[in-house]
Each structure stands twice: as C-alpha cells, then as structure tokens.
Amino acid sequence: MHTSFHVRAGRVIGRDHMLRQANCQDSYAVVEQPDSLVAIVCDGSGSGRYSEFGSLLGAQYVAARAAEHLQANVAPDELPALLHRQIVTFLGDLRDLVQPIDPLAFVREHLLFTILGVAIKGGAGVIFSAGDGTVILDDEVNLIDQNNTPQYIAYHLLSAAELGDYTPASGFAVLPLASGWQRLAIASDGFEPELAAHLWGQVHPLGLQRKLNGWSNSQRRFRDDATVIAIEQLIDKAAHSDSVIESERNHEVSA
C-alpha cells in the first residue's frame, strides 16, 4: 500500500499585531519527498521586536535538516534529539557570526521562537515541540499550553546568570505518531481550535490560506498571528490492490 499526503498551509497576521503595525512573527516550512514528509511551524516571541528573523530561519533550518536525515534513513523517533542539538548549535553559530554589540539583547530580540514539527517516513512518524502550539489528530485537538512561558530553544544560548532560576528543557517534547491516522494538523498558538473541523479537503493549493484570510477579514478572528499546516493521508488503492494480488500469487506458488 502506497501512502502519499495532501498538504495545505497558511498563515495570517494577528489583529493585535496589525494594530501596532508589527510584522507577522510566525513562519512555516514543508518538505515533501516521495517517501517522507516534514512540516514545521515556528512562532516568534511577542516580546522580541525582530523575532520573525529567528522564526523564519528556524523553520527553514529544522525542515531542511529533518528531510536530509529521513533521506539518510534516520528513523523518525531518532530525529528529535538529533535536531535539538543541531538547532542549538546553529543558533549559537549564527550569533557568533553576527558578533552583535549586545549578544544577550540579540538573542532576546531575534532568536526566541517556538518549534512545532512533524516528521513522517513510511508508516512511522513523530511530533516534536519546543514551546506552545496546537496539534490536531483526526478529531482530537491537543493544546500545548505553557502558561505564556514557552520553552524557547534559544534559551540554551544564555548563561546560568542570565537565566536566573529558569532551566531550559533538555530536548524536544515528543509524541510518537501511531499508524492509522487520517488527518493531522499543527498550528501556532494563535490558531483558534474551534475552527479545526474546517481545515480539511482544501482542493486549491491556496485553499487553506484563503480560509484563514476569510476568517481574519470577515469574522475578525485571530488576535495573535496564526499559522496552520493541514495534512491528510492519501492511500493509493490501486497500488494496494496490486500488492494484495501479488501476495496471494506468492502464497499460491509457495503452497
């Protein structure tokens, strides 16, 4: 049985951000390959004046590395620990390359963002997160709520004195993705969960983006920036039928 994916994504700037003329601080990236899929949503810190910078680079970097690892036959459940080390190193190298006047201010203003991702290869998959967001699995909506104190991965660049009593998470929070699911979405915390049932079946490539635009413009939804990636499994029934026939023929020969 061959499984492929129908993926749609979109983002809108939050109404509060519009009022203060702030940029959208959410970013996302999707990498589809013949036998794998990676989707990443990053949400920049609202207190960081330029956190869309880190959010954009983080989404691109994590998605690219995850796709490379899957193609190199790294198992999905091994990805989170590997990616966590790599993104921390990447952000540290970026800070050192820039050589900012005030390294602490640079991290706080540019590099604080959440990460919510999914990586799938074959029948195996994993969801991983650093910070808050929303995971929708079939008809179940799961909110990752960290009481407005997200576990930003760039906190690992700060010294103990700069962190004070705060201790960064040692790795991504991980949720194995069991087989049998049909629909999956990941979203930043600005997405409104009551809209989850309307994400699916977007035929046009911009269908989900248009829905988000409509909810924002006509219904005045989303106080915060909102980004969502919706994934639906598509099973090639013809390929599945051919596989069953071939299996039956092999059974008859061996008998």
Oligomer: single chain
Mean pLDDT: 91
The topology string of helices and strands comes to: EHEEHHHEEEEHEEHEH
Number of helices: 7
Straight-line N-to-C gap: 24 Å
Helicity level: 25-40%
Q: What does the main sheet amount to?
A: 5 strands, antiparallel
Backbone CA Rg: 20 Å
DSSP strand tally: 10
How would you portray this structure in words?
With 255 residues, the chain is of the alpha+beta class. The protein is built from seven helices and ten strands. A hairpin with a 2-residue loop joins β6 (133-137) and β7 (140-144). α2 packs across α3. The protein is globular, with a radius of gyration of 20 Å.
Features:
single chain; 7 helices; 255 residues; 34% helix; five-stranded antiparallel β-sheet; alpha+beta
SSE order and pairing:
Layout: E1 2-12, H1 15-19, E2 26-33, E3 36-44, H2 51-71, H3 79-98, H4 103-110, E4 113-121, E5 124-130, E6 133-137, E7 140-144, H5 160-163, E8 173-177, E9 183-187, H6 207-217, E10 226-236, H7 237-254
Antiparallel strand pairs: 1-10, 2-3, 3-4, 4-5, 5-8, 6-7, 6-9, 9-10
Summarize the structure.
The protein is α+β, with helices and mostly antiparallel strands. It contains seven helices and ten strands.
